[in-house]
Design brief:
Blueprint (H helix, E strand, L loop, with lengths): L1 H15 L7 H8 L5 H16 L4 H30 L35 H17 L1 H4 L1 H15 L5 H23 L9
Helix pairs in contact: 2-7, 3-4, 4-5, 4-8, 5-7, 5-8
Length: 196
């Protein structure tokens, strides 16, 4: 069963990796941490407005604390606990896939391969955690687009050959689940936190 799942993961990876090739530059930019800055600033601005213009400073402060704990939890657990714990090699570090994957190449000729282990994807966990928490805090109406942002950032990891689709899927599920758990815990401190 494990070999079958690995084969499917590799087949989907090879179908999506580096396709279409003209997206090299956008994919490399979108995979960077800078691509998340506008989204995080927008969430901070929305929390600021809730605290000042809508007279709900407690809700704003709790929302900020929940956001920080969501990101800190998804990042630390995915990169420091899950990756070394599962010890699943990234496709970019797998000998059987060497020469079959498209990677980002720097001007000096070196290739971006990411760290050694890849399960689960921290990009997917972090972005889906942030997106899910924002939707829970502010309502799905105008904020569901964040899931598309998270999916786009996660897709870049497959495009660049540094994650299997399974790494992305389970990273996204972990991030969204962690955000739901943080939101539920914080809502006990302030029922108003769940009011968009």
């Amino acid at each position: 069963m494990r070999n079958t799942l690995q084969a499917w993961d590799e087949a989907v990876l090879l179908a999506l990796n580096g396709q279409p090739r003209w997206l090299d530059t956008p994919a490399w930019w979108l995979t960077s941490n800078w691509a998340a800055v506008p989204v995080v600033l927008l969430i901070f601005w929305t929390l600021y407005r809730i605290g000042t213009r809508h007279g709900a400073p407690r809700r704003a402060w709790l929302g900020l604390a929940a956001l920080i704990l969501t990101f800190a939890g998804t990042d630390a657990l995915s990169s420091r606990v899950m990756k070394p714990g599962f010890a699943r090699l990234r496709p970019s570090h797998t000998e059987a896939l060497d020469g079959h994957l498209h990677h980002h190449t720097f001007e000096d000729g070196s290739v971006y391969r990411g760290g050694r282990f890849g399960f689960v994807s921290s990009h997917a966990a972090n972005t889906f955690g942030i997106a899910t928490l924002a939707v829970l805090l502010f309502g799905a109406g105008r904020w569901r687009w964040l899931w598309m942002w998270a999916a786009a950032m996660s897709w870049t990891r497959i495009y660049l050959g540094v994650h299997y689709p399974g790494d992305i899927l389970f990273g996204a599920l972990f991030g969204a689940g962690w955000a739901c758990a943080i939101f539920t815990a914080f809502r006990r401190f302030s029922p108003a936190l769940s009011t968009p």
